[in-house]
Design goal:
By secondary structure, the protein is an alpha+beta fold. Helix content is about 50%, strand content about 15%. Helix 10 (about 335-365) runs antiparallel to helix 11.
């Protein structure tokens, strides 16, 4: 919440079937609030994940405090030029003055005044002096009991009249204290030992946050020579969370592929067939993007990435079934061409049944269908279903595309492998390759 926020008003919408979309209502609220003079309001939806703050978060760091506010102003101007940012806020100090107490310690020591006692006396005029804490019977948290001057006596003039007990009696603090006005500094934040200020914003409805962050990064980089060299600009928030999630998912994906490769090589005793099985993962990626395109969803790092990793363990099954059956037939002395035809005929139904049942099982999530068995109700497009559309669309699209491609491409690649083996071993029982390809492999083998 911004430092100058006066209050927060929370709205609880009625059932989603009895109202318009939340995004449309929020746009209307923004339009109505913008017409109210004298206030600046922000409208935010409830966060549905662990992220804190707004999705667009820029942190500006420097060793010198005076260099940060101009840099913040430049970044805000760049964001205004790009457009598409709403509810922008920054952590610059609010305009205003504050009183600072300067103590002449040598003079205070002459009177025998204690600085701690002076601080307690000043608290009597400001926040109050903490006396005790009390927990009411109907409350879970403690309540502070503070002692302060009456409201009409909490003035600057009264501050000069405060007397503190010393060895020489009660002495007015104005004898060894002076008051100075200074620009309000607000809260000082340090990150890695450097002073820092933050800029946070939301993306306008219908605009992807990642797209806005990318544009802002490019614009800031293009204007980098206009910033002070001591100023660093770091992108955090959702961009930082996505990088962490991407690094984790990439590591998990590579680990899964490595383990699958190790198992396949030991079982098939063939690097070529192992790579052929894993090629289904690459083919399924095109299906993932196609599925998201059909459903009108963007590729999300978390849900899309989990979908790709889960899909990697599913799509390889079809290739394993085909290749394992083909190897068994080859061991029985069957010719490659006949073995491939028989493999396709025998394993077509199991492969299609496995893929079709999986895809059909995911269709309720793809179509955002919510089934309430207790209340005997079926709904489409409920808010609770939106979170799973990306994941289910990724798996369903990738599996459908990879299954069709596997049934067509895997037999061709197996036949190509047999031809390559025959060519390099000098056998001529296999059909001859085209002249250009044959000359190429012949030169390569020599």
């Amino acid at each position: 919440m911004p430092a100058d926020a006066i209050g927060v008003v929370q709205l609880e919408f009625v059932n989603w079937r009895e109202r318009r979309k939340a995004s449309e209502i929020i746009q209307d609220i923004r339009a109505i609030i913008a017409k109210i003079p004298g206030i600046k309001a922000q409208v935010r939806k409830e966060e549905g994940g662990p992220s804190e703050g707004k999705p667009v978060h820029v942190e500006i760091r420097s060793n010198t405090f005076s260099k940060i506010p101009p840099a913040v102003e430049k970044v805000l101007a760049i964001m205004d030029g790009i457009g598409g940012f709403v509810d922008i806020e920054d952590s610059r100090p609010l305009p205003g003055l504050e009183w600072r107490i300067q103590i002449d310690r040598s003079e205070a020591a002459r009177y025998g005044a204690d600085v701690v006692t002076l601080g307690s006396a000043v608290q009597m005029l400001t926040t109050g002096l903490l006396v005790a804490e009390y927990t009411p019977d109907d409350a879970d948290e403690e309540i502070d009991i503070r002692m302060r001057f009456p409201a009409d006596e909490r003035t600057l003039d009264q501050l000069l009249q405060i007397k503190v007990p010393t060895a020489l009696g009660h002495i007015p603090i104005k004898n060894f204290v002076t008051f100075e006005t200074a620009q309000k500094t607000g809260t000082i934040t340090r990150v890695d030992g450097r002073l820092a200020m933050n800029i946070q914003a939301d993306a306008a409805e219908g605009i992807l946050v990642d797209e806005q962050v990318t544009k802002l990064k490019e614009a800031v980089e293009a204007a980098r020579n206009t910033f002070d060299p001591d100023v660093d600009i770091v992108f955090k928030g959702e961009d930082e969370d996505q990088k962490e999630a991407a690094n984790f998912l990439i590591g998990a994906f590579l680990t899964a592929v490595f383990l699958m490769t190790a198992i396949l090589v030991t079982q098939f005793n063939s690097y070529y067939q192992s790579i052929l099985v894993l090629s289904a993962i690459i083919f399924s990626t095109a299906g993932v993007l196609l599925g998201l395109l059909i459903t009108g969803n963007a590729f999300g790092i978390v849900m899309g990435g989990i979908g790709v990793i889960a899909l990697a363990g599913i799509v390889v099954n079809n290739n394993i079934i085909l290749i394992d059956t083909y190897n068994d037939m080859r061991k029985n002395g069957m010719e490659p061409r006949e073995a491939l035809l028989r493999t396709g005929a025998q394993r077509l139904r199991p492969v299609l049944l496995t893929s079709v049942t999986t895809v059909l099982g995911l269709m309720p999530m793809v179509l955002a269908i919510n089934l309430d068995i207790v209340n005997q109700d079926i709904s489409i497009g409920a808010p609770s279903t939106q979170w799973w559309i990306q994941l289910s669309s990724s798996i369903a699209g990738g599996l459908s595309f990879a299954t069709v491609l596997t049934l067509l491409l895997t037999p061709c690649m197996l036949m190509l492998g047999e031809k390559m083996v025959s060519l390099f071993s000098g056998e001529r029982t296999m059909p001859a390759l085209p002249p250009v390809i044959r000359r190429f492999f012949t030169r390569s083998s020599t």
